[in-house]
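Budget justification, computational time. The allocation requested in the original proposal was used primarily to generate structure tokens for proteins on the priority list. As evidence of use, we reproduce two of the resulting records. The first is shown immediately below.
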Amino acid sequence: TWVEPLHDALVTRVQIGETERPALLARTPTTLTYYVDVPERAHLVFGVGTDSTATGATARVRVQAEGGQAQDVWTGEVGRRWNDQSLDLAPFAGEIVRIDLSAEGGEGTRVAWSVPSVMVDPPEAPAATEPAQNVVVLLIDTLRASKLRPYNPQSRVRTPIFDGLVDHGTLFERAHSQENWTKPSVASVLTGLTPSTHRAITTEARLPESAELVSEAFDGAGFHTASFLANGYVSDRFGFDQGWDHYTNMIREGRSTEAEDVFREAGDWIEQHHDQRFFVYIQTIDPHVPYDPPAEFLQMYDPRTDYAGQVQPRRTGDLLESAKGSNPSVVFDESDLTRLTALHDGEISYHDRELGRFLERLQTMGVAENTLLVITSDHGEEFRDHGSYGHGHSVYQELIQVPLVFHRPGLVPEGRRIPQPVSTMNVSQTVLELADVRGLRAAEGRSLVPDMRGQIPSHPMLAFTNMLDDKRVVRARRWKMVLSGINAKMFDLERDPQERNEITDLTQHPIAARFLRIHLGQYLGSRDRGHWWQATQQERQQLQTEQAEMDDTIRAQLRALGYAN
């Protein structure tokens, strides 16, 4: 019985002629198959030869894109010298492909493939720039990417301030959160760790003291650090108070969480410290329930004055929770849904106005030009897109695809859009590099600075999302796979951006399915999630799950935000 050898059993050093190289060595007939996401400016580079006295073997390279026909891109005789090739993969750029390296003929000939690799022509070296003097990270709670026109040109939501920042900054088109609700998602943003590592994934779990936050890295580098938080889950009770010179959580302190108040307090603090380097993290919550924008912003999207339905602004949290599930106690009609979405959209536009006022204040202080601004979100919100409302219950794109924009002219490329999927877990490593600060040595995220500068990452361009430990998501190019238990389904997000047609027969798209399954398996099986793609895995110290003390006060504050506990 023929048993296919394991990949590492094929790897050895082979001398052909006077040159010895590491290579994959197998006897004919053998085909080595790779599943690859082909970037721009890519070439397939390899050498092929034999150390056998037998002759007559032929080598062939065949490439097949998902949905396309297989194409022979090179054929050559296998001789007793290295035959080195660099094959242009431009026709397959942007596609997920299967690459077959076949050797046949010359029965039993030992054929060596020397380090087959996908190589990329480097971009022009960027001009030297001074690091950011200051950093502001703004996380807008519950803001799905598709509500914003730079992501969805058909969106009705008006955000002129955000749109202007995009025009003069770098936007990541396919940014994904690590989870579909606040605590684990924000924990990943601030630590650069996956939820499976930081373990702050349940209602009562807290970030361990041993988890290093980006605030601690900036604090250690001499920055003044401050946080202004409007979500009760991002609180001292859950371990988020590490590394801050100034820490405040408005909802925990029973104060206003309106954007104008959060931005005002942040601006007051910056004004007191604007002559020193600072790192500020702001988490606003206006698009989160309860939806209650000023009347002028509600009227932008629902000018009716005679609406008498069940949607009341301060009750939207309870209403959405009651509208969930297979047997909801609240059912919205079309009139209710019109009012509900208008309230949410009004909150986004109101927040945009207050963001503009905050940025004007930074300009007046004279710090805007030297301040790196990052805007993102922790998750989105569903409005009956897939039969439910709110968040925390699914891994559809309306909940896990979020905005991600970096802005500081002269440091961040202007008007650039990055198409490859990325994780918001990478935010902390990116701002540290742009500020020339070392830290987060244990982070599993990576800096996105190379992406901004046109470099192609040296690892697969994928983004992963969890839903507790139940569902796993992997995104590559147009393709998305969701694994629940042992069952997998896919979506083609280019043809089906609303995810109406789930693909359960994965043989319909065998190349994309195999690519996603291979890499999701490698990711889930890795001991080092920060280098999950590497064949050699190092053991990492796992953080221990810690539980927060939940009293009646904090439970009531979380219920006010629509969290059932």
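The second record produced under the same allocation is shown here.
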Amino acid sequence: MLTSEIKLGGRTVRFVTVQTLIVGSGAASLNCAEHLFELGVKDVAIVTDRLGGGTSRNSGSDKQTYYRMSVASDAPDSPVDFARTLTAGGMMHGDIAYIEGLGSVPEFAHLVRNGVPFPCNKFGAYVGYKTDHDPRQRGTSAGPKTSWHMFEGSMKQIGRNGTPILDKIEVVALLTAPEGEGTRVVGAVAIDLTRASEPGFGLVLFRAENVVLGTGGPGEMYKISVYPKGQVGSMGLALEAGALSNNLLESQFGLATIGFRWNVSGTYQQVVPSHFSTKPDGTDTRYFLNEYFDTMEELVLNTFLKGYQWPFHAERTQNGGSSIVDIAVHNEIQAGRKVFMDFRENPPGGAGLEPFTMARLTGEAKTYLERSGALQATPIERLLHMNPLSIDIYTEHGFDPAKDPLEVAVCAQHNNGGLSANIWWESNLKHLFPIGEICGTHGVRPGGSALNSGQVGGMRAAQFIARRYTGNPPALEAFLKLSAPQVDAVSARLQRHLGAGAGALGVEAVRSDIQSRMSEAAAHVRSSESVRSALDAGRKLMERVRREGQKLSKPSDLRLAVENDHMLLAHLAFLETIRFYIEARGGGSRGGYMILDPKGARKVTTRKGTGMPHRPENMALRAEILETAATPAGEITVRPIPVRPIPKDDSWFETTWNEWMRGAIYE
């Protein structure tokens, strides 16, 4: 990495030349940096706006799952079986799924080598368990902080390797250039957040042969979100540069606490806490789940099942399924009430239901809790017995489930869509490699498979770069000539916000508007009408912001304003993809969302009554992926592309060896 200062367009900017620039500092990005070093690519720099501030280091659940092929006992498994599971819900390319299966064991071993404390038995077997959408027992965990351990292990290795990390640097634009019939990335423009209030905005210009984008998901787009605060991702930034995206409509939503943002899956539900709601002032306590289930046995079983059926799933709203719990919570919050989980007491009786006792355990709940020795009198005692670390994570952040109930909501948790990539995780923009959550490799997926995907994606990108893209960055003169107008555009955007008049919207107002719209129209309950209304309002907001800028109350608001610019484009792309799915493709309820429709053939039937008519899933659409493109002006186009099948891989060793030696596998 070479650093200097240059004059560009009458301004002085910091100029950095590096062979491979990695944007983002989560587990996927750090893993890619590790593999690049191992493969001999040493001219690498990691740039991040908040080292340790992203999802990898700040998110988790009761025992955060890492999903990989079975590696214990005599359980039959294979990469093809793994791929079949990943693609079972549709909307996922079979070759990507096969690669994630093949890469899951070496990447799991890499994490073990890095010190991630996955438990094993006395034989050295890393025993697994079932997670959501998992037909086997492929899940494993290092406790509530699995991805934190992944981050910390990689950071130690990055330190040993001497790979530089540039902190408090926020990338605000990707630099592109024509290449053949397409476009490639040649670098990036960033703001040094420690110098953003200076006359030149603290601009940093990166010249790079490759850019790896590992900036996470767009959690900040939602008002009701379990993502770390400030987790914006780079979806709008990449779309603005011309990157294509996949499946933006496919997200996961699930119960999470909102005081301290944390998923309440797994053991949190399996110990069967009580759920109640109140008015905003804390009065009028109501144990609302009693109104939805016919018996206490049903209520308890479905609360328990919420543990490993944690994400909202449209199919589980039928026949008294566990997502009735999500619907009940949603309805309470829509009615203006607050919802809480309480580990101090078992679900009480009322509304015609008998109080819960351990004698009322049935089915899977009875078997699981008995085998776990978790038959203590109260939920907090059962939680302490089964998973004391899941309590510690709350007390570390000032919350004590043994003393107080925890406020919860159905929160945005993960985007299964993202930027398009090929089998080496390269974007349609050549030399750009999206990895981790920003890469749209998923359809409806098993829990924990996203962590594996990020590790495999980082490894694959590093392998391709090390074999094919080890050349020098573009020549200086040509680079400066093509980057100058793009840097000017960034400066003009910043200046527009600085010069915003008194009538312009403030940055917080713009962000709040986007967040409210997405939680209302693009969360787990959707409809054609709400999405159309949201699109109309979103376009009007973008037009106003581009005309008037955003009012800044303090210098640090400038970075928020640029993030909002990108978020405006991203949220329109999400909404337009949802609209296209519902209206142009006749899409129905599937995976993490329900499509309300007065003529819908399905309804939610509970003890409380029948309502929420919605469309059933259109199964034919599992065979396609929705690809979305956007222009900087906000024009969004969506088209369906067919899902590629799982490869019939009958490779012969001698020919494979020859192709590998010649580098033909990278062509």
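A brief technical remark on that second record: DSSP finds 18 helices and 23 strands in the chain.
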